[in-house]
Design a protein that fits this description.
The complex is a heterodimer of chains A (171) and B (204).
Chain A lengths: L2 H4 L6 H4 L13 H6 L3 H17 L10 H10 L7 H32 L4 H8 L2 H22 L10 H9 L2
Chain B lengths: L12 H8 L2 H9 L4 H22 L4 H15 L9 H19 L1 H17 L9 H18 L2 H12 L4 H8 L3 H21 L5
Helix pairs in contact in B: 2-3, 3-4, 3-5, 4-5, 5-9, 8-10, 9-10
Classes of the chains: A mainly alpha (171), B mainly alpha (204).
Chain lengths: 171, 204
């Protein structure tokens, strides 16, 4: 409840601190400064607080072995762990998975070229570019011929190099 | 509580270590799996939390409330931001627990106030020269009833600022409001409390 708005004629310091009026802007902290009690109210507050502290209701003593029961309850709780730590580990986990996939892909590719029974082995053994070209041409022609002979429609699709490549590895 | 030099202590070394360690050290030990370190935190703040909860919620189920606060604190230790003090954070949990309880038993509170009314007639009148223990008990009951007369927000700032003597900036953090709001609430709460106390015959 804003009492200042309800009583525009109120000349208490609170009125000047209200941001809804059209008065000049007050310097930073003015509103809080005006909430500071006057000397008279400070005296009243001191007597009130002193009375409260002197006569505040005293909490009853805790039940016997309360601490033991509390620690027994704590013992049944798991060790608290930070979700933040788990979140921080998420990129590492994703990175590890990605690295694994890349590694597997590379390994697979290298396996094609280094497999003793594959075309890579032939290339590696000869070391000759001309032999490699001849091998590729033979493989290419053979693949086309095989596809043509097995395709009853006679419309072979030779554009799918990936199919040719992956089928030859035999792994 | 620290003991004087030269007085033999019946406390074990682990207990002494718990007392000597600061809050952050104990928290680190808790997070490392040392549950006994949490006992050090309880011994340090348990009574203050208990007192605050009592002022806010009364005696019914007080042990359960205190246990709830410390269980929540244990579970929430990883979320504790070390920019604030542990006591402020713990008071915040206590205040949340207290407000949960008060909301849950709002109807019961209304019934308790109604039931407690006949008690007023049995209390001695301080204006008739009551003194000693009776007077103290009477005034404690008057304060208790006057606190119960306040709204939750007003009662909270009175309990935290005036009874527990917590700095206003810390109370602002506990209640998650600006310091200016704490000041204004305290101003209004004190006025209402003073009026209620005077209505019950207390001269301040």
């Amino acid at each position: 409840m804003n009492r200042n708005n309800q009583n525009p004629n109120n000349q208490s310091p609170h009125v000047n601190g209200d941001s809804n009026d059209n008065s000049e802007p007050l310097p930073f902290g003015s509103f809080e400064d005006q909430l500071e009690p006057t000397k008279a109210s400070q005296t009243d507050d001191r007597s009130l607080v002193a009375f409260l502290r002197q006569h505040q209701p005293v909490a009853p003593l805790e039940s016997s072995n309360f601490e033991g029961n509390l620690m027994a309850a704590i013992a049944q709780e798991p060790i608290p762990t930070s979700n933040l730590k788990k979140a921080k580990r998420l990129p590492q986990i994703i990175g590890a998975i990605a690295a694994g996939l890349v590694g597997a892909g590379l390994g697979h590719t290298l396996g094609v070229w280094t497999n003793p029974s594959g075309m890579g082995a032939q290339f590696a053994a000869s070391g000759s570019e001309s032999e490699l070209e001849a091998f590729l041409e033979d493989s290419w022609d053979g693949a086309i011929a095989q596809t043509s002979s097995t395709d009853p429609s006679g419309t072979s699709d030779t554009s799918d190099f990936s199919t040719l490549f992956w089928d030859t590895n035999g792994i | 509580m620290p003991h004087s030099k030269g007085v033999p202590s019946d406390k074990s070394e682990p207990d002494m270590a718990l007392e000597m360690a600061d809050d952050l050290t104990l928290i680190d030990q808790c997070l490392a799996g040392n549950r006994s370190a949490f006992a050090g935190l309880y011994r340090r703040y348990g009574q203050r939390v208990r007192s605050t909860l009592y002022q806010l919620c009364g005696e019914t189920g007080l042990d359960d409330l205190v246990q709830d606060v410390f269980l929540r604190a244990w579970r929430g230790l990883p979320k504790f931001r070390r920019s604030a003090s542990f006591s402020t954070w713990l008071y915040r949990i206590a205040w949340n627990v207290a407000m949960d309880r008060r909301k849950k038993f709002a109807r019961d509170r209304q019934r308790e106030l109604t039931v407690s009314d006949p008690l007023d007639a049995t209390l001695p009148d301080p204006s008739q020269g009551a003194s000693g223990q009776w007077s103290t008990l009477h005034y404690q009951d008057v304060v208790r009833q006057a606190l119960g007369f306040l709204s939750d927000g007003a009662r909270s700032v009175i309990v935290l600022c005036d009874l527990e003597d917590i700095p206003q900036k810390d109370v602002a953090q506990i209640l998650n409001v600006p310091v200016g709001t704490v000041k204004s609430r305290l101003f209004s709460a004190r006025a209402a409390l003073r009026q209620e106390l005077e209505r019950q015959g207390v001269e301040l």
